[in-house]
Design a protein that fits this description.
FAD/NAD(P)-binding domain, Flavocytochrome C3, Chain A, domain 1, about 550 residues, binds succinic acid, 16 helices, Methane Monooxygenase Hydroxylase, Chain G, domain 1, 5-stranded mixed sheet, 7-stranded mixed sheet, alpha/beta
Length: about 550
């Protein structure tokens, strides 16, 4: 038994660490992270964080851009609340030691697709890393925060699963200590899921290895509602090179005048959208995908060569160095790029306080579906959402503590008759098959037939992975694979349920917007783990 904590935070990106710092004023906090503290989606964010700080920008404009990108599915109250909290969120990060770039005494603001103004605060092209640096420093100095690296949550503990209490409630988690290969019980008065995204469900992704949708999968198994999983954002420009793993080429480059070109040098976005290279991400990614399929080429290029080399080196030192290490000098030649899975717009349904519908369980950051992004996230709104909602969730967690469960004895993890894993090839094979299936059948452009094929394969994989899970001792990879197959299942079920094309979800069988009122796709766990779709309900 790991013991008791007041607040359990699962995940160590911006949402997790900011909440931990807030919660530390109210009790003991335990942060678990499955690799090291600095391994999170946040750390990989290059572009920055959107907020209205410029004199000539307005909250209304940011709201309008967010609603426009979200294609009719944003919750307007949430959009307004998050945008309004933007300045406060930035002030909080600065107070924690984050150093955003400044020019002539004002924030140096970048521009990205879908934004009508320059409003992206950044730290060169390493914004996420700078935010993580400051937050990790702050949590490490805090006496009330225990940090456990190499600890991966296996499942949430709920009163329903324990067969106790009249009402269900999350009372902690079972956690695999991967250094000692032991599953511990961690009891908590309130738990925050801040596990980031799930890009690893696809073969090609801009996400780090840790992005395996753990929070969504655990919340689903615990009975919380999951929404809008069909809306998976593909970033248009990830570096194309055999030795480049998941390397993002930030949209901020197009914000500074970068141009997408075909291999023959012609401009790709001309005539596709009035904003051309700064069109919303779904439109750019789809245009590249279509062009690659039509021409049979492997990549398109992002041309920065018209820009002053000194500017490029100063503004994008990280991207310049990474490209140069692979023999690509972006000041002289266009950068080869392809789209790749980038951001999960759906997730665990929360209210404006970050509370899920399972009492005691909260979610923030990419794991959550708050209603901000709707059918498509506006660039750089994600760090803003993580900062705003981790504050809100922490406040709600502190206020909602109930002491009644504190005395409840929780059973230790029961490994049953699990044997040592005999064939790790089962895990690696299924991992590969799952990600290929998702890439080929559930990618940027979908069809009914491909979704049906994907579902058939995923159901078989799910059975096999479940069987392995119950019969063999847990490993880190097995826990992640089980979560990935659950997330894939949720994505495909949601995609099949949406009988229209909207935002990031494009199905050739239903290429138009439905004339019915916009609705979320909401799924919860039915009997024996089956997926149960809620009746479509107007979002307005
Ligand atoms: C980027 O730098 O292009 C990523 C920004 C984002 O995904 O919001």
């Amino acid at each position: 038994m790991l013991g008791d904590t007041d607040f359990l935070v699962i995940g160590s990106g911006l949402a997790g660490l900011n909440a931990a710092l807030r919660l530390a004023a109210h009790g003991r906090v335990t942060v678990i992270t499955k690799r090291q503290l600095s391994d999170s989606n946040t750390a990989f964010a290059q572009g920055g964080i959107a907020a209205v700080v410029a004199q000539d920008d307005t909250l209304e404009a940011h709201v309008a851009d967010t609603l426009q990108a979200g294609a009719g599915l944003c919750r307007e109250d949430v959009v307004r609340a998050v945008v309004a909290d933007g300045r406060k969120a930035i002030a909080r990060l600065v107070e924690l030691g984050v150093r955003f770039d400044v020019q002539n005494g004002a924030y140096d603001l970048g521009r990205e697709g879908g934004h009508s103004a320059r409003r992206i605060l950044h730290a060169k092209d390493l914004t996420g890393r700078e935010i993580c640096r400051a937050l990790v420093d702050a949590v490490q100095q805090h006496d009330n925060i225990t940090l456990l690296a190499d600890h991966i949550a296996v499942d949430l503990i709920t009163l329903r699963k324990l067969g106790r209490g009249r009402e269900d409630r999350c009372v902690g988690a079972y956690v695999l200590n991967t250094r000692e290969q032991r599953v511990d019980t961690l009891r908590a008065k309130a738990t925050l899921l801040a596990t980031g995204g799930a890009g690893k469900v696809y073969l090609y992704t801009s996400n780090p290895d840790v992005a395996t949708g753990d929070g969504v999968a655990m919340a689903f198994r615990a009975g919380a509602r999951i929404a809008n999983m069909e809306f998976f954002q593909f970033h248009p420009t990830v570096l194309f090179h055999p030795h480049a793993k998941s390397f993002l080429v930030s949209e901020a480059l197009r914000g500074e005048g970068g141009v997408l070109r075909r291999r023959d040098g012609s401009r790709l976005m001309q005539g596709v959208h009035p904003l051309e290279d700064l069109a919303p991400r779904d439109i750019v990614a789809r245009a590249i995908d279509q062009d690659l399929k039509r021409t049979g080429e492997d990549y398109v290029t992002l041309d920065m060569t018209a820009k002053d080399p000194a500017f490029l080196l100063a503004r994008f030192p990280n991207i310049h160095t990474a490209c140069l290490a692979l023999g690509i000098d972006m000041t002289k030649v266009p950068i080869p790029v392809v789209p790749a899975a980038h951001y999960m717009c759906g997730g665990v349904v929360t209210d404006l306080a970050g509370a899920t519908d399972l009492p005691g369980l909260y979610a923030a950051g990419e794991t959550a579906c708050t209603g901000l992004h709707g059918a498509n996230r506006l660039a750089s709104n994600s760090l803003l959402e993580a900062a705003v909602f981790s504050d809100r969730a922490a406040a709600a967690m502190a206020a909602g503590v109930r002491e009644t469960e504190a005395a409840l004895a929780l059973p230790e993890w029961d490994p049953g008759r699990a044997a040592d894993p005999d064939e790790m090839v089962v895990v690696s094979h299924n991992w590969d098959e799952l990600r290929r299936t998702m890439w080929n059948y559930v990618g940027i452009v979908r069809s009914d037939r491909r979704l049906e094929r994907a579902m058939a394969r995923i159901e078989l994989l799910r059975e096999e992975i479940d069987d392995y899970y119950w019969n063999f001792k847990l490993t880190h990879d097995l826990v992640e694979l089980r979560n990935l197959v659950t997330v894939a299942h949720l994505i495909v079920a949601s995609a099949r349920a949406r009988r229209e094309s909207r935002g990031l979800h494009y199905n050739t069988a239903t290429p138009e917007l439905s004339h019915k009122p916009p609705h979320d796709t909401v799924i919860r766990r039915g009997t024996r783990g089956a997926l149960q779709l809620a009746e479509p309900d107007s979002t307005s």
